[in-house]
């Protein structure tokens, strides 16, 4: 199906979802759940938090579906990620007001399927990566999440981030270099 | 994919958001270019070793470390648990159903609200029209009522409301108009043969109206405005004259007695108003060019044939008592005057009154060219006083 047909089909889907069509919203949910969950999981410490954040994102999407003007799926996902960022920030503010015991020690449930390139890493290692990602700018982090967590190519990443391919490329280079400094811990040998 | 000659790699644009402090050194630029090439090859299906075969030895170690780091980043990705996905979908779809019902009910409420609003507006409009039209008709009908009639309170309420909003000279005009209404009511009551209690009520109302008129005249006179005193005096004289006519024709002794008492009361108010006028004339700084004789109750005090003031010197307010010579007053067959109340007809109706000179405080026909109201013909300069008609 061509891009135009995809866009038309997606607009029809959004239109029906906007009218609270059960099937349409269910279809949108099934298409978006994976990216949204992965995005959320990359931002929080535990599966429980990721699930809670994911649920908040979709409930907010339902509340705001009447105002969504996404013409393509990438724009819809970009909007969902934006909602996720706001919800995550809200959660962090709440946690700051009511400090809770760290959940990192509990580790992750074992039902998470390992990714093809992934190695088994401990919860500490996951937390270390996440902390390093939090050091990136919002745009750099978005690019890293899109390319390495969601597995998007440059074109789709650009659509989600809302920038052109060149800008995404530069953001990618800078983000990887910074992560390298943070995680590998050594500058590139001169 | 960028190439070594790509200027974007050699000199990253500082315009890129988040670029501040993240500038890459040449070595990092080389590393990122190598990384990009390797990733592209792997994405195209090349093995990692094959993809890295042309990477210079000094970069290879750094590139492997970078790839390992990115593998760790990839571990951040995780698929949602199927149970969670199913449960969230069920909750969401339930929420979708609820939202659809809420939306439908909200639309229905909006529709009903609009419909209700339109109905309310229609009913309100009808009520306003009915009350407005009915109210106007009621006020019109009330104008012809006398005390005791069902609509008389409407008339009283109208007068009260008008007085509330009256200012300045408007108060005098309204009070005079009130007095004229009382006069009309009195005539109507007598014509209908209304019981004495109705005449008694009218007597009380006349007393109130004239007393208030005198007070208003005093206030205005004190403020240097003589017009209200003169206007009021003319109105009171007109009513007095009309009552005299009614007394003459009234067959019922009780009612006639009430009317006479009313006339006596009015005479006192006339005297008060005349005193205000005369005092003002006496205190006027500029002497009158023509000496004025003392005001007399009757025009007989003026010399027969003497000239009357010009019409411009005498005010002719509503209810003015200025009159043409007695011949203009006509008496209808039943003995009552058919003239409007503003035309005094005492002389025609009461020929027994003898023209006698009276001191201040009585009605007079002033011959001075002042603005004092007189019981003289002023509408026509050639008219003369009706000396000896009373």
CATH homologous group name of the largest domain in chain A? RNA polymerase sigma factor, region 2, helix turn helix motif
* Largest protein-protein interface: A-B, 68 and 50 residues
Based on CA inertia axes, which overall geometry of chain B fits?
rod-shaped
Q: Count the helices of chain A. How many?
A: 8
Q: Radius of gyration of chain A in whole Å, from Cα?
A: 18 Å
Q: How far apart are the first and last residues' alpha carbons of chain B, in Å?
A: 128 Å
Largest sheet of chain A: none
Strand elements of chain B, count? 0
**Which ranges of chain B are low-confidence, i.e. pLDDT below 50, for 5 or more consecutive residues?**
1-20, 287-390
What is the global morphology of chain A?
globular
Percent strand of chain A: under 5%
N-to-C series of helices and strands of chain A:
HHHHHHHH
**What is the number of E strands of chain A?**
0
Secondary-structure content class of chain B: mainly alpha
Radius of gyration of chain B: 51 Å
Q: Based on helices, strands and strand pairing, what is the structural class of chain A?
A: mainly alpha
**What is the overall pLDDT average of chain B?**
70
Separate helix tally of chain B? 11
Could you characterize the architecture of this molecule?
Chain A is mostly helical and 190 residues long. Chain A has 2 domains: 1-111, Rna Polymerase Sigma Factor, Chain: A (Orthogonal Bundle), CATH 1.10.1740; 113-190, Winged helix-like DNA-binding domain superfamily/Winged helix DNA-binding domain (Arc Repressor Mutant, subunit A, Orthogonal Bundle). Helices cover 68% and strands 0% of the residues of chain A. Chain A has 8 helices and no strands. In chain A, helix 1 crosses helix 2 (22-41) and helix 6 (138-149) crosses helix 8. The relative contact order of chain A is 0.09. Mean pLDDT of chain A is 81; it is low at 116-120 and 186-190. Chain B is an all-alpha fold and 390 residues long. Chain B folds into 3 domains: 7-14 and 24-70, no CATH class; 119-165, no CATH class; 166-283 and 294-299 and 310-390. Chain B has helices at residues 7-10, 26-43, 48-51, 57-74, 82-142, 152-164, 169-192, 196-222, 227-249, 253-283, 346-349. Residues 1-20 and 287-390 of chain B have low confidence and may be disordered. The interface between A and B is large, with 68 and 50 residues.
């Amino acid at each position: 199906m061509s891009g135009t047909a995809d866009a038309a089909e997606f607009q029809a889907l959004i239109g029906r979802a906007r009218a609270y069509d059960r099937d349409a919203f269910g279809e949108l949910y099934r298409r978006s759940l994976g990216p949204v969950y992965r995005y959320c999981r990359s931002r929080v410490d535990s599966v429980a938090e990721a699930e809670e954040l994911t649920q908040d994102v979709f409930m907010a999407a339902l509340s705001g579906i009447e105002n969504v003007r996404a013409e393509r799926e990438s724009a819809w996902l970009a909007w969902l990620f934006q909602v996720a960022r706001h919800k995550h920030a809200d959660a962090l503010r709440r946690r700051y007001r009511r400090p809770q015991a760290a959940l990192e020690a509990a580790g992750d449930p074992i039902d998470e399927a390992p990714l093809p390139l992934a190695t088994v890493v401990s919860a500490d290692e996951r937390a270390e990566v996440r902390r390093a990602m939090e050091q990136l700018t919002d745009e750099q982090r978005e690019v890293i999440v899109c390319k390495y967590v969601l597995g998007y190519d440059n074109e789709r990443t650009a659509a989600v981030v809302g920038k052109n391919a060149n800008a995404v490329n530069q953001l990618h280079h800078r983000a990887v270099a910074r992560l390298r400094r943070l995680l590998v811990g050594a500058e590139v040998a001169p | 994919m960028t190439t070594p000659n790509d200027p974007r790699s050699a000199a990253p644009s500082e315009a890129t958001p988040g670029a501040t402090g993240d500038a890459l050194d040449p070595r990092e630029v080389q590393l990122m270019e190598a990384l990009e090439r390797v990733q592209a090859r792997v994405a195209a299906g090349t093995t990692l070793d094959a993809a890295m075969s042309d990477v210079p030895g000094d970069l290879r170690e750094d590139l492997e470390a970078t790839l390992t780091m990115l593998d760790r980043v990839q571990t951040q990705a995780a698929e949602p648990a199927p149970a969670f996905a199913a449960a969230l979908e069920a909750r969401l779809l339930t929420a979708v159903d609820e939202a659809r019902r809420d939306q439908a009910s909200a639309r229905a409420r909006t529709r009903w609200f609009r419909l209700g609003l339109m109905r309310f507006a229609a009913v309100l409009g009808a009520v306003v029209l009915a009350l407005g039209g009915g109210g106007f008709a009621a006020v019109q009908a009330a104008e012809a009522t006398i005390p005791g009639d069902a609509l008389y309170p409407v008339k009283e309420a109208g007068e009260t409301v008008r007085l509330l909003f009256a200012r300045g000279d408007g108060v005098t005009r309204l009070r005079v108009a009130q007095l004229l209404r009382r006069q009309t009511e009195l005539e109507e009551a007598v014509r209908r043969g209304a019981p004495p209690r109705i005449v008694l009520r009218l007597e009380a109302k006349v007393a109130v109206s004239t007393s208030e008129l005198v007070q208003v005249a005093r206030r205005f006179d004190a403020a240097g405005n003589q017009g209200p005193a003169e206007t009021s005096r003319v109105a009171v004289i007109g009513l007095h004259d009309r009552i005299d006519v009614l007394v003459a024709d009234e067959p019922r002794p009780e009612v006639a007695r009430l009317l006479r008492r009313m006339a006596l009361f009015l005479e006192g108010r006339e005297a008060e108003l005349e005193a205000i006028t005369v005092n003002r004339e006496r205190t006027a700084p500029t002497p009158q060019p023509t000496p004025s004789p003392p005001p007399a109750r009757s025009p007989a005090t003026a010399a027969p044939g003497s000239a009357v003031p010009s019409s411009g010197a005498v005010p002719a307010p509503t209810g003015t008592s200025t009159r043409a010579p007695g011949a203009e007053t006509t008496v209808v067959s039943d003995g009552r005057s058919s003239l409007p109340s503003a035309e005094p007809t005492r002389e025609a109706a009461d020929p027994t009154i003898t023209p006698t000179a009276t001191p201040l405080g009585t009605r007079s026909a002033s011959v001075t060219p002042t603005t004092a109201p007189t019981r003289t013909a002023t509408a026509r300069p050639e008219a003369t006083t009706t000396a000896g008609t009373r």
